[in-house]
Amino acid sequence: MDPAAEFRDDSCAVQPGSRLYVFNDGACEIALPDGTTAKLADLVHQLRQPSPPGQSKLDELIQWARVTGGQTSFQDDVSIMESEF
Question: Which of 19, 39, 51, 54 is the most exposed place for a label (fewest CB within 10 A)?
Answer without folding.
Answer: 54
